Every structure is written in structure tokens, then in C-alpha cells.
């Protein structure tokens, strides 16, 4: 009995010493081992806790081997009737044995052969510690993979663990989970780690104050009321303007299809004047709604583009486009068509004959008109391109088309007649000159 009491005292003393050592070790590791922006920003705020990190598995706080296989065999053979007073077991390399002393204490037993002479001790399962978390009473062993951050809570306070092997003995410190730093937004209790890619900006709210985070960096939102709201893309957007109907200068109702090229150039203005960051009931706007998918902002841009395009069409005479088409489709009247004679190539019509609906110079005034408004919510429209423009009334379109065809045919007949007349003049002139030559030859003879 005296030997059993001495074993219990030695075990209690060893566990107490190990507990005080594992609770807090000097911070022997520098954050320079992890140079990614996420680790750096956490280190700059002093949030990476290295005090529980072990250099190797040899530093694991575990009860070492205290017996041999031969001694345990002899004890099991000769003291078999008293088996309930002791226990023997072996722990393989890479594993720990979970043991409780029956008095509220917990221990890890390390590699080797063990013997416990105490009827109140109970031996649990053998577990591997190369990956994951082992929690045994107030004793915890956790492995945090490279590229992750371990998140634990101690009396309501967050504890962030860098990659590596960590161990602590505490009844209040609980390991929650490991967060993958590959994610752009990582919410770790009251802390939020935000990575903003190049070409984007992030909208955050710090106690109601809007703060914009630029792209290409990693940021730490340091308290619960500093909330991430949305990402705003600053890339070029291409939107299709739904078919609109607008009246031209000659009172022709036009159906127009167009595209709009635009981008957000002033993120602060866009987020402040056009982005929904909170619902009317006070709840936060989710990452997949409104600004997250640019729905509201896109609608605002397209509405203004539609209004500017309608104003542009109102200054255009649609019927003149058929005159332009006829002039382009036929050569100028000054170039006669002679039967049997191939006409020389005709130079392209001058730029002034282009349809005003597709005149880039005049369309630029439409873009400027739209930008005067979209600038108030941080958007710049690069171009508005008319894809198709036809009369909404199909009967009118057929009539105008027939008129254009008739005009083209009349111009063609006029050109052909002018060519025939020119040919007749040339033929008559040639015949007259031939007659003069014959007369001269007769006189000379």
C-alpha cells in the first residue's frame, strides 16, 4: 500500500509540473516562418499565439514509459488474483493512450511499456496525433495544417493558433475549428479576415461608418461591429439593353436593340449612393444579393442608358437612312453605265453618307449625356452601341423599304439612260470624224 501511495504522489507531482509547463510556454517562434499576407496581418495585430506550439512530438506532455515487458509479464502471471489493483499496457509510436486517474485528472501516456498500480485508474483508447484534435478532459492536443488558422476560445476570448502542433491543459480553453486561408472572407468569432483580389474592392461597415478596402491586399476587421458587406468588381461590364421603343425626329416609332459597356470607377460613390448594405428591417444584406450580383447598380446604368439613347433617337430622322442606303448602293450619277464597258472602281461614299443611327461621333454625345448622370453613382459608360433599329410598325417598315427600293431603281434607270446618251454621243462623234476623213481622201485623190 505504501508503494501505491508513492506511485500516486509521483504521478500527481509529474502531472502538476507538466500542467503548469503546458499552460504557458515562452513564445519561441517567430511569425517570420509564415510570410503569407494572412499570417502577417494577424501577427501585426499580435493575434497569433505561439505559446502552446511544440517544436516536435518529443515535447508532447505525456507520461513516459515506466516498465518493461518482462516485468509486466511476471506481474500478470504471479499476481493474477490481484489484477484489479494494477494495469499494464503498451503504446505504439505515433500514438497516445488516454488515461484518467479516477480523481478528476487526465493524462496522455506516451510511447513505451507502462504499468499503473492503482485500482482507480482507467485506461481509454489509443489515438493517433498526427492530424486533427485530441481532447481528453482538460488536456488538448491539436494539429493545425499549413495554410490554416486554428481558432480556440478561452473564457470567451479568441485564441488564434499558427500552423504546427499545439498542446495545453485548461478546463476553459476549447478548440473550435481550423479555418482555411484559401477563403476570401473568414469569420473567426469577433474577427473577420478579408482578402480582396485585384480588380475588386470590399465594402465594410465599422459601427455604421462605411470603409472601402482596396484590392490586392488582406485586411483584418478587428471587432464584431466592423462587418464585411460586399465585394464591388471594378472590371469592365457588358450589358445588353433590352429592346426599347422611341420616336425619331420624323415621328417614326423605332424599336432599338443596343449594348452598353461600363465599369465602376468610383467605388466610394457607388457603395454610398447606389449599394444596398442593409434591409429596411435592419438585417444585413447577404453577399449574394443586390450589390453582390450588381443587380441594382446594373439596372440604374441601363435605365440611364435607355433614357440617353431615346433622346439620341429623337434627334434622328429615320427616313433619311433609306436615302443614305440608296446612295451607297448605287454609284454617283456622274459615272455613266455603258453597255459592254466595265466601269472603273468607284471610291467609297464619303463619311457624311453614313446612317446617323450608327454615327460614332453622334453616339458619343449620347454616351456623354449618360455619363453626366451615372457619374453621381460612380459609374462611367464607355460606349453605347446600336445593334439594330427598325420601325415598330411593320407595315411602315415595308412601305419605307419599298420607297427606298423604288428610289434606287429610279436612280439606276437614270444612270443607265445617261450612259446610253453618252454612248450615242460618242458614236455620232466617231461617225462624223470618219466621214470627214473620207471626204479629205476623195479631195486629195
Characterize the structure shown:
The chain has 445 residues and is α+β, with helices and mostly antiparallel strands. Helices cover 32% and strands 31% of the residues. It contains eight helices and 21 strands. Strands 1-11-8-7 form a four-stranded antiparallel beta sheet. Strands 4-3-6 form a three-stranded antiparallel beta sheet, with no helix packed on it. A hairpin with a 2-residue loop joins β9 and β10 (157-161). α5 packs across α7 and α6 packs parallel to α8 (394-444).
Beta-strand percentage range:
25-35%
Mean pLDDT: 79
The oligomeric state of the chains shown is: single chain
Shape: elongated
How many DSSP H or I helices? 8
Largest sheet: 4 strands, antiparallel
Q: Give me the side-by-side strand order of the main sheet.
A: 1-11-8-7
Radius of gyration (Å): 44 Å
SS-based class: alpha+beta
Strand elements, count: 21
> How much helicity do the residues have?
25-40%
Distance between the termini: 167 Å
Spans of at least 5 consecutive residues with low confidence: 1-32, 287-292, 324-342
Amino acid at each position: 500500500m505504501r508503494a501505491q501511495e508513492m506511485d500516486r504522489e509521483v504521478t500527481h507531482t509529474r502531472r502538476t509540473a507538466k500542467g503548469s509547463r503546458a499552460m504557458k510556454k515562452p513564445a519561441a517562434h517567430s511569425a517570420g516562418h509564415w510570410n503569407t499576407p494572412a499570417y502577417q496581418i494577424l501577427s501585426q495585430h499580435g493575434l497569433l499565439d505561439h505559446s502552446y506550439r511544440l517544436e516536435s512530438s518529443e515535447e508532447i506532455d505525456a507520461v513516459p514509459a515506466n516498465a518493461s515487458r518482462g516485468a509486466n509479464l511476471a506481474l500478470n502471471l504471479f499476481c493474477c488474483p490481484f489484477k484489479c489493483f494494477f494495469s499494464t499496457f503498451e503504446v505504439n509510436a505515433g500514438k497516445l493512450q488516454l488515461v484518467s486517474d479516477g480523481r478528476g485528472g487526465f493524462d496522455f501516456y506516451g510511447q513505451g511499456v507502462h504499468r499503473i498500480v492503482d485500482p482507480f485508474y482507467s485506461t481509454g483508447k489509443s489515438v493517433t496525433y498526427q492530424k486533427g484534435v485530441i481532447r481528453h478532459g482538460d488536456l488538448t492536443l491539436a494539429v493545425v495544417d499549413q495554410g490554416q488558422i486554428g481558432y480556440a476560445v478561452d473564457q470567451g476570448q479568441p485564441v488564434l493558433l499558427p500552423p504546427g502542433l499545439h498542446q495545453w491543459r485548461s478546463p476553459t480553453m476549447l478548440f473550435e475549428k481550423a479555418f482555411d486561408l484559401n477563403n476570401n472572407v473568414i469569420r473567426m468569432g469577433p474577427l473577420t479576415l478579408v482578402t480582396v483580389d485585384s480588380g475588386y474592392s470590399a465594402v465594410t461597415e465599422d459601427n455604421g461608418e462605411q470603409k472601402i478596402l482596396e484590392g490586392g491586399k488582406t485586411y483584418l476587421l478587428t471587432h464584431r461591429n466592423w462587418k464585411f458587406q460586399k465585394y464591388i468588381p471594378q472590371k469592365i461590364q457588358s450589358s445588353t439593353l433590352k429592346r426599347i421603343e422611341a420616336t425619331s425626329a420624323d415621328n417614326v416609332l423605332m424599336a432599338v436593340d443596343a449594348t452598353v459597356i461600363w465599369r465602376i470607377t468610383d467605388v466610394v460613390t457607388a457603395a454610398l449612393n447606389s449599394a444596398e448594405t442593409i434591409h429596411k428591417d435592419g438585417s444585413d444584406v447577404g453577399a449574394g444579393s443586390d450589390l453582390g450580383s450588381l443587380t441594382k447598380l446594373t439596372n440604374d446604368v441601363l435605365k440611364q442608358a435607355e433614357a440617353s439613347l431615346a433622346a439620341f433617337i429623337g434627334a434622328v430622322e429615320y427616313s433619311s437612312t433609306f436615302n443614305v442606303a440608296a446612295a451607297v448602293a448605287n454609284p454617283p450619277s456622274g459615272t455613266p453605265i455603258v453597255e459592254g464597258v466595265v466601269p472603273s472602281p468607284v471610291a467609297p461614299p464619303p463619311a457624311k453618307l453614313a446612317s446617323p443611327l450608327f454615327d460614332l461621333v453622334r453616339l458619343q454625345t449620347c454616351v456623354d449625356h449618360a455619363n453626366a448622370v451615372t457619374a453621381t453613382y460612380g459609374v462611367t459608360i464607355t460606349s453605347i452601341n446600336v445593334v439594330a433599329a427598325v420601325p415598330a410598325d411593320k407595315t411602315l417598315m415595308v412601305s419605307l423599304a419599298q420607297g427606298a427600293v423604288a428610289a434606287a431603281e429610279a436612280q439606276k434607270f437614270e444612270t443607265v439612260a445617261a450612259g446610253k446618251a453618252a454612248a450615242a454621243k460618242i458614236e455620232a462623234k466617231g461617225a462624223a470624224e470618219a466621214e470627214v476623213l473620207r471626204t479629205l481622201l476623195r479631195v486629195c485623190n
